[in-house]
Amino acid sequence: LFEDHAFTTMCSAFMKFFYSPFRAVFTRSEDYVESLERLGLPRDRTVSLMPGFDNEMFHTRFADRESWAGYQGVSPGSVKVLYVGRVSVEKNLPLLTAVWKGVAKRVRSAGAAAELIVVGDGPYRETMERELRGLGAHFLGFKHGEELSRIYASSDLFVFPSVTDTLGQVVMESQGSGLPVLVTDRGGPKEVVRDGTTGYVLSPDDQEAWVSHIVDLVTDDAKRRGMGAAAHEFMQTYSIRNSFEHFWDVHVQAWHEHLAARGIEPRGPAQVHRTRPRPDREPVGNAG
Question: How far apart are CA 120 and CA 138, in angstroms?
Fold first, then answer.
């Protein structure tokens, strides 16, 4: 982040020193397993944790299109393109700013109505608001609890241009709420998106692709709703329960390895999963 070679080297050396004694080190995504390996950590001790989100809190049942009337300047009838997260450069929001300018122009030419809804705050907000003034962009600030759930479920599609996130919790929350998503092909978010089915995985260097895919989803109601329904169904595998069972299994295995190294036989077998379960099936949790 600071582009300081000495600081990077120092941090890398400390991380290797700190994590070396552990039998298992969790990462948020498969993408970051390689990053830890480059630090010198053995690949067989690095575990990609099964992602999980609150699929009760972020759900299609919170949809309420009329609630948009409660936000000044927002039209209840337009297609809502949503971003949730820190409003900062490291989230690659300059890309979204440039993309939305193109989207607003094309949507207007097509006779459609679309608005960009930005939830969150950060140092880039002032610049982004200035750049998108008059282009149907609305900045709602921080939102929490049921209001946030309602905003998700009452929107139409989700955009997340970050290239630095290890996973992107909001990508799961939005899909659970029934929204197709657009993410980059860098970092962890792409691992919780079925490209072409629940959303699109796009290069952050291809601005035109972002504009075209957003416009396509804004103007094609059937495709947008079909992908949103697929996204909601897909995300039900990623429950907090399933994530915890994988988390627990890995700890049980690490404990049994610790006992075995001291010649102690664990009491009762445990079926564990050191690797992350595939998202298209239920993981088995049996910590015996």
Answer: 11
**Residue 255: partners with Cβ closer than 8 Å, 6 or more residues away:** 266
- Per residue in 201-210, pLDDT tens? 999 999 999 9
H helices of the chain, in order, are: 5-19, 33-38, 93-109, 125-131, 145-154, 169-176, 207-219, 221-235, 240-261
Mean pLDDT of the chain: 90
Place of tokens 């390689």: 34
- CA angle 281/286/288 to nearest 5° reads 170
Among 188, 228, 242, smallest CA distance to 59 is for 228
Higher pLDDT, 250 or 108: 108
Please provide residue 269's backbone torsions phi and psi, each rounded to the nearest 5 degrees: -75, 155
> Quick one: pLDDT at residue 276?
55
**Does residue 49 contact residue 86 with C-beta atoms inside 8 Å?**
no
User: How far, in Å, CA of 90 to CA of 70, rounded?
Assistant: 31
* Tokens standing for residue 287: 């910590």
